[in-house]
Design a protein that fits this description.
alpha/beta, four-stranded antiparallel β-sheet
Length: 415
């Protein structure tokens, strides 16, 4: 922030008049003009001293509600300024410095203050609204206060050095639920029988095995089946989904490795990733988020734990691309048995990439590819390989691609 001339327009005029009086007094020999010029200088000096010697400003504390703000979302920032002045002060102005990752009107009028040399500093609160523009961690401040003396001759602009970090998280878009959520692909509606040794809920019967306690014999089932049956518990298991976010810089621009917000395609993919995770967790899936080489990008998020989704979204505020290309390593990650839905989010997607990831489709109940920059007929080839594929436009909304997959799932089910 630039420094201000310490005199206001009125004070500058008084300074010019004082100099003129002194010059005229010397030329004309008028003592009255000399007295008047000296008096103006004294008044100006007193005005400046009243601001620079008696005014004391304490710390600036900021609070923001909510504590983090998403891209495109708003939050209210409240700046609390502790201030003390020995003489009454007319109204002034305040201005908080906003980083490029936030936008808003962080300026306004500062109230007049009565003299208060004794006692604790008074706290003045001013609030304003900010909107998240760029994902990342940004810094608010410093806060600038511009005040004048009681006569309006001098002004002072003070910068308070306290700054506040603000986290701008990726935009979470509300995605529609997939029609397969209650069918073959899972959702919390699916259950699996887990055979446990103890418990008393959801009892079922199974044949007696050596070592089972006689106290667990299920007499009614034994009589019905004409063989010895024992009680065991049936427990619901949470179906799992995997979201694969390919961070290899080959899929993005080199700027995606430097800082958040530098590559629009990468930002679209980050938003798609957190939105898909939020949708799946809401639908009852336990979700793992991994890179294309199988490296975990977060802890597993349990089904329905939307609080953990918020923490996950906050961690992705600083996510950047990596210099490697690991998409060819994805297939070995899923070489075991069948898994739940697998959602692959990728930037550049070539027809040759389809060959690398084709085996994954045969190990997932619902394989999906969301590509920000597909090349040629890559998506059509992915469909032929068993994937449900869709394209997300750069700077676009991922809900359209997600919904298009859902519509095709409905069509396939009807067919």
């Amino acid at each position: 922030m630039r420094r201000l001339w310490p005199l206001t327009t009125r004070g500058t005029g008084a300074l010019i008049l004082a100099v003129g009086c002194l010059v005229a007094a010397g030329e004309l020999g008028l003592v009255e003009l000399l007295y008047f010029g000296v008096l103006l200088f004294a008044v100006l000096a007193a005005a400046v001293l009243s601001l620079f010697l008696t005014r004391r400003t304490g710390a600036v504390e900021r609070t923001m509600v909510p504590e983090t703000v998403g891209v495109g979302e708003t939050a209210v920032v409240t700046a609390r300024v502790a201030i003390r002045t020995a003489v009454p002060t007319p109204p002034g102005t305040w201005e908080d410095s906003l980083p490029t990752g936030l936008t808003g009107e962080a300026t306004g009028a500062f109230p007049a203050l009565a003299s208060g040399l004794r006692g604790a500093p008074r706290a003045i609160e001013r609030s304003y609204t900010v909107t998240g523009v760029t994902r990342g961690i940004h810094t608010l401040g410093p806060l600038a206060l511009t005040t004048t003396d009681p006569f309006g001759l001098a002004r002072r602009r003070t910068l308070r050095g306290e700054r506040t970090d603000v986290t701008v998280t990726p935009a979470v878009v509300e995605l529609p639920g997939l029609p397969e959520a209650g069918g073959a692909s899972g959702g919390s509606r699916l259950t699996a029988d887990l055979h446990l040794g103890q418990g008393a809920d959801n009892l079922v019967a199974r044949p007696y095995q050596s070592g089972d306690s006689m106290r667990r014999i299920h007499w009614r089932a034994t009589a019905h089946r004409d063989e010895l049956m024992v009680r065991q518990e049936e427990q619901e298991s949470t179906p799992e989904a995997t979201v694969v976010f390919d961070l290899g810089t080959l899929r993005w621009s080199p700027e995606a490795m430097t800082a958040p917000g530098t590559d629009p395609a990468f930002e679209t993919a980050v938003s798609a990733c957190v939105s898909v995770v939020a949708r799946l967790v809401h639908d009852g899936y336990g979700v793992d988020v991994i890179d294309s080489d199988g490296t975990a990008l977060s802890d597993r998020i349990d089904a329905g734990d939307m609080g953990e989704v918020e923490h996950f979204t906050t961690r992705f505020a600083t996510l950047v691309a990596h210099p490697d290309d690991h998409l060819a390593r994805l297939a070995p990650v899923f070489t075991g048995g069948m898994s739940g839905p697998v959602v692959l989010i990728v930037g550049r997607f070539d027809p040759a990439d389809v060959v690398a990831v084709a085996p994954v489709a045969h190990h997932s109940t619902l394989p999906m590819v969301l590509a920000v920059a597909p090349r040629g007929d890559a998506l059509a080839r992915a469909e032929d390989a068993g994937w449900h594929a869709a394209s997300i436009p750069v700077d676009g909304d991922p809900s359209g691609a997600w919904a298009s997959v859902g519509e095709r799932l409905v069509g396939d089910h009807v067919a």
